[in-house]
Amino acid sequence: MRDKMFMRFMTIPALLVFLLMGVYPTIQGLINSFTSYNMTETAEKKFIGVDNYIRMFTEMRFWQALGRTLIFVMLSVGLSYMIGLVIAVLLNKINAVRNVYRIIFLIPMIIAPTITALNFKFMYNYNMGIINFFLNLAGIPNVDFLGDPSIALFSTLAVDIWLGTPLAILILLAGIESQSEAYYEAAKIDGASEWQIFLEITFPILKKFSVIVIVLRTMDALKVYEVIQLMTAGGPGTSSETLNIYISKAGFSWFEMGYAAALGIFALYFIMFIARFIINKTGLFQSEVSRV
Amino acid sequence: MKRKKNISQGIIHILLILFSVISLFPLYWLITTSLKPSLDVFSVDMLGFFRPSLENYETVLVKDQYPKYLLNSVITSLFTVAITMPIGSMAGYAFARLKMKKKDTWFFMILTTRMAPAVTFAVPIYLMMVGVGMIDHTAGLVIVYVFSNMALCIWLTRSFFEDVPKEIEEAAMVDGVSKFGAFIRFAVPIASGGLVATAILIFIFSWNEFFFASILTQNAAKTFTVHLTSFFGSKRILWGELAAASTLGASVPIVFALIMKQYIIRGLTMGAVKE
Fold it and tell me: Phi and psi (nearest 5°) for A285?
């Protein structure tokens, strides 16, 4: 019993941090979301009920941003998972230099997203960028990666996939490596093809690791900010504007703090819903609880 | 049979090398751009058939205020680590050792703060910082970073403390060491490799952070990531200088990652990859 008291005491400082910086701002945000509060106007903050929420749900731009966010997250997670799986399986088939590859794949993950975003903006440049140079060499005319409304979102998506795939590789490779060779040997002796081995042995073994990849990549893809803000700022027009970009525009370009707070509350609940869903559906955390 | 195997090994290597080139090319291009004199900044010479010059680095480090902002980033990140680590590892230790019913709630909270995009907290935190006059103060930024890294810190330190055998602490307590003493004098030293890696990871995340730095600082406390955007002048974009500044900013996490590769991988994968 006294042991329990001690351990409670050990979590108090962390709890205070969560209360001060997590819970308090959330409550403040909730309160602000019911007010009309524009920092650029001298008018006092006043209570307007659910008007901000009505505005949000009736505004086409909000739904478009939400839709883009969902497309972005699904494509980013799905494609980085698939590419990651292929590379991890290939890596498992070579014996030498696997660790060199691990270091190579670490690098995109640890460089500041700000640097990556600005660097890709340079490489995507319409007239002089290196990517268009390569396309020209292959006989393809210049592509306006960031200036064409039908392409811009996907150009930013490509950068996010570039950023996120290494994580998938590292986790899936660890998953494959954690399994004993014996299964594979037995299957080979039985005359199974490489493809059968992958479908019937490797893939099922990877289930738990796949869940981890999908959870972590979903978190990161939902957070994407720099890659879009610094390359297109949501443009041209609003063609690459995701929810995060829309919220930050409402708050810090238009200074409509009440409306931005309402959007923030919506986004937070939306993410808590996804977190709950992940916890319930995957059983990822139940195992953690029961183990201790 | 052997020959067939050699051919497929060859194909695998070619595919992996191709993928590695895609992963590394942006960094390579960043570094070569930083070494190009301003007239050649858009030249597509791959292998350095330009006269490499340190002109951009000189501009960035001597004429520009960039060193000041790099220093701000160092200070902000160091303070973040120094505050987050003790608080987070105490909680992480408690989770590693405690049988607790409400654990699920804690995990949910931790997961939510880890998942929530910074913008969802942005407005209230911004207004709070305006209210207490902490805009453009390093301290304000540090408080925000402590919060945003806390979940990660608890999560990871818990995983490292779980690797420490409980029996060692129990033996120490039998010898009359207090519970807190057992934590400080036995659990922490044994888990120190993992704790150092957690600290480095938190340093890297604070070092790389952009969003909060961009809304909470103006000049005095501005960090290097925010300053990078100021190379986009109203008349022209200083690509060469930007590349030099970016290379400097990227080198810090790269050096850390090369030194502590294994632990960093474990940290970035939230403990999923252990070795």
Answer: -95, -25
Phi, psi of A188 (to 5 degrees): -65, -40
Out of A91, A106, A271, the one facing B264 most closely (by C-beta) is A106
Domain spans, chain A: 64-240
Maximum separation of any 2 CA atoms in chain A, in Å: 80
Rg of chain B's alpha carbons, rounded to an integer? 23
Same domain, B24 and B85: no
Using the 8-state DSSP alphabet, how is residue B137 labeled? -
B6 and B110 inside one domain: no
Residues B151, B15 share a domain: no
Question: How far A144 CA lies from chain B's nearest CA (Å)?
Answer: 17
Question: Using CB atoms and an 8 Å cut-off, which of residues 122-161 of chain A contact chain B?
Answer: 122-123, 125, 128, 130, 133
User: Per-residue pLDDT tens for B231-240?
Assistant: 887 667 788 8
pLDDT digits (tens, 9 = 90+) for B122-148: 888 998 999 899 999 999 999 999 999
Stretch among A3-7, A285-289, B54-58, B151-155 having the lowest mean pLDDT = A285-289
Residue of B nearest to A108 (CA): B23
Partner B contacted by A29 (CB < 8 A): yes
Contact A22 B147 (CB under 8 A): yes
Structural domain contains residue B273: no
Q: What is the ipTM of this complex?
A: 0.89
Per the structure, the complete domain to which residue B254 belongs is given by 62-268
Mean pLDDT computed over B48-56: 75
- The answer to whether residues B180 and B255 belong to one domain is yes
A155 to chain B nearest CA, in Å? 15
pLDDT > 50? residue A292:
no
Number of H helices, E strands in chain B: 14, 0
Is 50 exceeded by the pLDDT of residue A286? Answer: no
Residues 6+ away with beta carbon under 8 Å from B18:
none
Q: Do B98 and A7 touch (CB under 8 A)?
A: yes
Q: Identify whether residues B147 and B15 lie together within a single domain.
A: no
B132: helix, strand or coil: coil
Alpha carbons A216 and B120: distance in angstroms, whole number: 18
CATH number of the structural domain A64-240: 1.10.3720.10
- Examine the domain organization and report whether B86 and B38 are in the same domain: no
Closest CA to A30 of A11, A18, A13, A47: A47
Domain count of chain B? 2
Asked if the model's pLDDT at residue A288 lies above 50, the reply is: no
A4, A10, A27, A232: best mutation site toward chain B, by most B Cβ within 10 Å? A10
